[in-house]
Fold:
Amino acid sequence: MAAFKTIDDLDVAGKRVLVRVDFNVPMVDGRVSDATRIERSLPTIRDLAARGARVVLLSHFGRPKGRRVAEMSLAPVAAALDAALDGSPVAFAPDCVGPAAAAAVAALADGGILLLENLRFHPGEEANDPAFARDLAALGDLYVNDAFAVSHRAHASVEALARLLPAAAGRLMQAELENLAAALTAPARPLAVVIGGAKISTKLALLGNLAETADTLIVGGGMANTFLHALGVDVAASLCEHDLAETARAILERAHAAGCEVVLPIDATVAERLATGAASRTVPIKQVPAGHMILDVGPATVRDLSARLGACRTLVWNGPLGCFEVPPFDAGTNAVAAKAAALTREHHLLSVAGGGDTVAALAHAGVLDDFSYVSTAGGAFLEWLEGKPLPGVEALVAAAG
Structure:
């Protein structure tokens, strides 16, 4: 990965530092219900404030589509940030540009923290409008991007602003980029990639890129059924994109040509219905009974995958291996995740995971804190796996000269 500056490279004392954060947090009855994204931004905010910066936070919230929507104000987030900072006062401006924002920034003392109102109240944000970016830039002396989760979007506060002010990555962005580079850009090999989830159609670009990057590509979840079907296996009533059989075969051929082994389930836990406690049984993958659905990988597959992980040095994981939300169909994902976590604790494996379902599955398995790094970014993480350039990251690299 090309070089980028970090906040260690900036002289921030007495400077107005515009920090792009991702405070698009869950809200219930006007209160933040999960402060994880706020908490992950705290190292950058605290570091800058401690060094005498005037910290000006920029974020979007929801999809107001360029107009002011009272229910999408960031005002409740300012209160949650105040609490997360143990009562350090957080000022709030009722707009992100214009006189109100300028007055709030001017009132900031060294070490002060200010949250500006929802960027997406202005259509210029999502349009990456240069004029809107210049209005934002007028409020600061330096720019810090600490929002990897939105860096796949060429929005004004993510892309254009980084080209108008001296720019650097915040602590969270730095951690994301360094861990992702270690996992896929220049990984210790062998590199295994677990790709799960329901459908091939949602991860075509990702599968194509990884088939040429990984040493071992482990396919689970519903999308494995499409590959099995493409190889002539009867998957009975299982979720399967029958019309993508040719696409699946093309991915297998692409992987073979690149020297990547694609690993599919060798047995499965099947049932006639998806429900908690539904009657289920384990069968070899070529013996799925009529009317049954493949809902999880079986114990032989778990043993096979665990042994393969033991021979690897780097693991990238995106997507569950089965319907983990509904016991007993969480057993396969839980067991393989536990093996990956154990190998990570033993310093045998660098493990990086990301994506919404993946984070939920690893949390369910009780191993979220045992992986080397877990990205909470959804779309940005997937586009990185697909090998696409991320506008926010590209802008930081350009700013580093």
